[in-house]
Amino acid sequence: MNSPRMRMAALLALLAGGLPLPALADPMAEIVGRWRDSDGESEIAIARCGAALCGRVVWLKQPRFDRFNPDPKLRARSLLGLQVLSGFRPDGASLLAGEGYNPADGKTYRTTLELAAPDSLVVRGCVLGGLICDDDTWTRR
């Protein structure tokens, strides 16, 4: 197998499918974990919920309540344990899209999650079809 033709044939066979391709990273698996928001007031655990990802508040620096919820009966509930992220699935090469509930105003927004670095997650909520967006960078715990 020292002839140039034999080496070329072997190389072409390998390139044509003789070698297994490396597995592509699962963007959902990379985001699963515990994240602290940028102001250090809360931590959210992101986990699989069926075929999607969701996130719950698992730690609060100080007790907080859902006081801006549009339903008056829910305004006294603790934010601890509250699901604030739901339905996140891949949407493009590096984004996951779903819905995010913002306890600061009691509204739910179209939200994207993007892993900016292994321990840095950009959470972006948008309104008006993406014309107005606000983002926060969370840190892996």
From TrEMBL:
Q: Which InterPro entries does the record associate with it?
A: DUF2147
Q: Which UniProt keywords apply?
A: Signal
Q: Where is the DUF2147 domain?
A: 33-140
Q: Sorted alphabetically, which Pfam families does this protein's record hold?
A: DUF2147
What residue stretch is flagged as signal peptide? 1-25
Q: Is Signal given among the entry's keywords? A: yes
Which Gene3D superfamilies does the annotation name? Answer: 2.40.128.520
The question of whether Magnesium is a record keyword is answered with: no
Q: Which PANTHER family match?
A: BLL6627 PROTEIN, BLR1215 PROTEIN
Q: What is this protein called?
A: DUF2147 domain-containing protein
